[in-house]
Design a protein that fits this description.
This protein is α/β, with parallel strands linked by helices. Helix content is about 35%, strand content about 15%. Strand 1, helix 4 and strand 2 form a beta-alpha-beta unit.
């Protein structure tokens, strides 16, 4: 669970339900729906165990790992029961805070699923794993920048954390986010990490309930496991086979700063165009007014998006 470290002595919050914007029932239902999308998109079939038949799963920024029992049951049913080439599954759950010292045993023990817990900072590299499950990294540009410079530094910190976790994944990575803005950040970072990224896939639980449009600042749209991003490495071919629907986001990368920058450039260009029209009024031809302004090397005017 992505979060700002709590003050010493404060109650640690390690799940969406702990933060109070959803119930445990909604949290669990949303996680089940997310797992179903993974099954539908062929993620589990694409994974390849190592030569000993071991499938390794990294779960960074796990918080209290509230979804553990649901994940174990899913992996048992959809992987171990269906694939003879996978003999064991090793899960590594990590978080910067220690939620694990009092972790109770799973409701159902599975002799073929092993779970390890590790307290470490997200910027520390993880061991390689075929599958990465990154639930709720706290990487939203739109909402973080509203709080000024300290949160901007926090945003860049999470860019490094996302990159490190993506680099640990050798086959398929899955990230879930509370907001669409966060999913767009994940897409951008996984591409920089050499992976192919899916559209932002909305959880079926929220079809028709939330807005599939970035930078809307609609905090009511904060939902557990809201948007899913799947990323894979060559030669794995999960992402190219995904067919997004009208509830998924297939648009370009944007964050608050790039959008402001583009709007500023558009306003400047409009001002220049209007000034040019005033200067050239009464000229014999308007063709030069409507054509792009050439720069010193003869190329048309270029608008560049800053990519953070």
């Amino acid at each position: 669970m992505g979060h700002i470290p709590q003050p010493v002595g404060a109650e640690k919050k390690g799940s969406c339900a702990d933060y109070g914007f959803c119930s445990e029932e909604e949290q669990n239902n949303a996680y089940r729906a997310m797992l179903q999308r993974l099954k539908t998109e062929g993620v589990l079939q694409a994974l390849r165990p190592d030569s000993q038949g071991v499938l390794r799963v990294n779960v960074p920024f796990a918080g209290k790992f509230a979804e553990r029992d649901l994940l174990m049951a899913f992996l048992r049913q959809e992987v171990l029961n269906r694939r003879s080439d996978v003999r064991f599954i090793h899960i590594l759950a990590t978080d910067v805070q220690n939620f694990f010292s009092e972790k109770i045993d799973p409701l159902v023990r599975d002799p073929h699923i092993f779970i390890s817990y590790l307290v470490q900072d997200g910027t520390v590299p993880l061991p390689p794993a075929q599958l990465l499950l990154g639930m709720h990294p706290d990487c939203s540009s739109r909402f973080l920048t509203d709080f000024g410079e300290p949160y901007r530094r926090y945003y860049y910190l999470w860019q490094r954390i996302l990159y490190q976790t993506a680099m640990s994944c050798t086959q398929v990575a899955v990230f879930c986010n509370l907001w669409l803005e966060e999913a767009i950040e994940v897409q951008n970072v996984t591409r920089h990490a050499g992976m192919m990224s899916s559209p932002a896939l909305k959880n079926a639980l929220y079809y028709g309930q939330t807005i599939t449009s970035p930078l809307t600042a609609n905090k009511r749209d904060r939902k557990p496991f809201h948007y899913l991003v799947i990323a894979d490495r060559a030669p794995f071919q999960v992402v190219p086979k995904i067919e997004p629907n009208d509830q998924d986001y297939t648009g370009p990368y944007h964050n608050f700063w790039t959008l402001q920058y583009e709007r500023t450039l558009e306003a400047m260009k409009l001002g220049n165009d209007l000034a040019g029209r005033d200067t050239c009024s009464g000229s014999e031809s308007d063709s030069d007014i409507s054509s792009p302004r050439a720069d010193s090397d003869g190329h048309g005017e270029r608008v560049q998006t800053v990519e953070l």
